Each structure stands twice: as structure tokens, then as C-alpha cells.
Amino acid sequence: MFLDGRTGRTAFLFSADASPRPGTGRELRAECPVFAEALDDVCARLDPYLELPLGGVMFAADGTHTAALLERASFAGPALFALQAAQYRLLGSWGVRPDVVYGQAAGRMAAAYAAGVFSLAEACHAVGTLARLLDALPEPAPERPGMDGLLGAYGRTLATLHPRAPRLPLVCDVTARPVGAETAEAEFWVPRAPLPFTDMAGALHRTGVRTWIELGPGDLLVRLLPGCLPGSTGAAFAFSRDWEVLRAGREPAAGPGPGQR
């Protein structure tokens, strides 16, 4: 979490800084029934696309073969989406809601779900399908043979979905602008290289964002903010995410979030 003053808009940042480490979210799962229920729901929706149940992989003992599966793109992407979707639902239950959402690379689909573009079922279908396709590429990279075919197959899956206009401002990580009618085009959701976060942070700051909450396994993006924003040194306050502070409602949040389906 990062606060650049206590007024202004709130942005949720759905990051893609790294795959969740084994056990990420274990404490929230034990202490927060809303988070546990949401995580179990998302994992159950993604399990049909995976070789092993996602929850078992996410909470496997560190150092085991099962835990090491999180290093594979076919598990890392679903684990990231499940974690972010559950965190989002938890924050909503505490009354912490965004005015704008931003999803970076692999976090793009969770941001789209939060903004109401896709239902949970649709988002899980997209995430699960991409995971299944990536599983055929042991070391996925844009230049690897077969990637064009993979993206084509993923695009055909996206074309079967029914995206809606975002109910919350959703900022594109490729253009740094709010998205609109282009969300209805399947090609828009095919993975593309994002802009540097410095550009994104500046664009969001110019729209009045002053409170930043990162969803995902870490806080890489909010740690970058002091070097990205004008006047964000000295009087600004930076924190790693403090779920107890958020639960207590001591941080500002404005605007209604989309209903959960």
C-alpha cells in the first residue's frame, strides 16, 4: 500500500511481479473466512484445467516437488489470478473499494474481473485455457516456436466470451489510458508487453490517484512508487500491505465496486 497524501482516488494494482511462493495467502486463509471461501471457489473453477488441484499446489510444503510446480507458467498464472481475486473480494467485504483498477500483464485478467468486464466463470475459463496451452510449452517465451499458434488458440477462446463495458475505470497497461469499447474485441485480451510502470504510475497520478493498493503475492509496484511520482519523497508514506490496517478501515477508499458474481 502506498499513500501519497490522504485525499484523492484509490487505485488497485493487480501486479504480475512474480508467481506466488508456496504458502502465500496461508494466514489470510486461516484468519479470514471470506478470503478462504473466495480462494476455494476460484481454485475449484480452475482445477479442471490443471494436472493437480490448484489449492494443493499453492499450499504445498516449500521445497517439495508439488510446491515447485508454482514455478511453471501453467500453475503460476492460475495461482496469481486466484490469489488476486480472493484478495479483491476480501477487501470489498471490508468496504475497501477502488476508484480505478490497473492490471499488469498476467494481472490483467484479475483487473478485468474486478472491473466487471468478465464474470468469474469467464475469467477462470480464460485463465485456465491459457494455462493449459502454456503447459505444452515447457519454457514459454515470446520467441519460442509455437507461441503464435498458442496465442491464436487463446484468441479463439477469448472470442467465445462476452465481455462487458467496465463498471469501474480500467486502465490499460499497454496504452496507459482507460479502456472502453475495445474490451469487446478478443484481440485486446491477448497478452502483450506492458508499458513501464513509471509511465502507468504517472498517468494514474494525473487522474487524481493518491492511494495505491497492490493485489498479488508481493508489493513490487508500490515499492517503485516513490521514484515514479512527483513530490513523493519526504512527506509521503510508504508501507508494505498491512491487511489489519485495511480491515480496520483506517485508509480512504471511495466509490462503489462491482458486484461479485
UniProtKB/TrEMBL annotation:
Alphabetical UniProt keywords: Acyltransferase, Multifunctional enzyme, Transferase
Gene3D superfamilies linked to this entry: Malonyl-Coenzyme A Acyl Carrier Protein, domain 2 (3.40.366.10)
Organism of provenance: Streptomyces broussonetiae
PANTHER family recorded: FATTY ACID SYNTHASE, INACTIVE PHENOLPHTHIOCEROL SYNTHESIS POLYKETIDE SYNTHASE TYPE I PKS1-RELATED
Lineage of the organism: Bacteria, Bacillati, Actinomycetota, Actinomycetes, Kitasatosporales
GO molecular function: fatty acid synthase activity
Single Gene Ontology BP annotation: fatty acid biosynthetic process
Domain of life: Bacteria
Protein name per the record: Acyltransferase domain-containing protein
Tagged with keyword Transferase: yes
Domain Malonyl-CoA:ACP transacylase (MAT) intervals: 13-243
Pfam families named among the record's database cross-references: Acyl_transf_1
